[in-house]
Amino acid sequence: MSIHILDHALAKHHITTLRDKKTEADQFRRLLRRLTTLLVAEATKNLASDSYEVETPLALFQGKQISHSIGLVPILRAGLSMVDTALDLLPFAEVWHLGMYRDEATAHPVEYYSKIPKTDPIDVAIILDPMLATGGSASAVIDKLNAWGVQHLYLLSIIASQPGVDALCKNYPDVHYFICDVDSSLNDKKFIVPGLGDAGDRAFQT
Ligand code: PRP
Question: Is residue 102 among the annotated active site residues?
């Protein structure tokens, strides 16, 4: 099992402002991008690389290039706010969108859009969703990516609940989880408490 909670002063600083209900949408989106930078940098630091030779203006240099095929899997809507930042750091990545919302009455995920194909899986999938509450949406995505045949799965979330993390780690111990902060509980509507509200609604002003 591999769960990494970002132990970084910048992450603690920015997520505190993100949680603040006075933080408006423009600043909220900017903070999501900053936190995504920290998450992607941490999650990708041990990705497999091959030797790669380049010629500098002065001499040959034996360098490295990432060897795996990588796909970003943003869970719509909120995951969209993490894509551009992740693509800046991983410009060679594919993007496979997946639309999912949580039914308000049952809190179960409902899929409404999927670009995930059935053949030719990528080597590494990096799932992007700012929030992991019950873990139901993430579980549905992981099931889909496993069915596609992806070998290495990463899940990047800005905020999670302890019950959601526990459920995912129990059911999917091979996934690599990278999270900025984990809160202790969910309320009776399955919202993370204290949390930050609904990331999609706050980012897109709905
Ligand atoms: C939120 C969030 C996750 C999901 C987390 O999305 O972005 O996708 O809920 O909850 P879970 O862990 O209990 O499944 P939401 O359904 O609000 O859709 P949105 O991204 O369109 O706002």
Answer: yes
